Fold this sequence. Notes:
alpha/beta
Amino acid sequence: MVVGLGNPGGRYESTRHNIGFRVIDRLAARLGMSVARSRFNALYEKGRLEGQELILAKPQSFMNLSGKPVQALADYFDIEPAEILVVYDEIDLTFGRLKIVAQGGHGGHNGVRSLIDTLKVRDFARIRMGVGRPDPRMDVSDWVLGRFSPEEADSLDPFIDGAADAVSTILTQGLKMGMNAFNCVK
């Protein structure tokens, strides 16, 4: 299951916090899918990538409560935490940088914290998408709930494409291959 983190509703659609949703939408478009089924407070769709079954999911519970819908989908589809790949925004990476990790802590990200607390494990793969850190005088919440700058917006489509490529590589060639191919690229 590939989970993109974000917040529901048009108000948040183009914010930094919703970049995970945008990657899920890009993958769905590439695969001719629509992530429109609703269950357990999540939008999802089942599909195939190179013959492999997958589920694309976007929790609709707001970022800080993402764990419950993900856990419910995982239980329903009999998916182990180690079979979950999560895509989300990361302020500790410069804009445009991807970092793929096999497991770890939440690093202050409340969506990831909710997943760890609910799933009771840290061993699920993640694609951290750099959105940069705000000026120290700016509130981090305002930053991640803000829209991309015009300069960032110009580079956003290739960045989202790169993350979608990373997901495809991980699913078809493995996590290690994804890390080798994408962790050193800006």
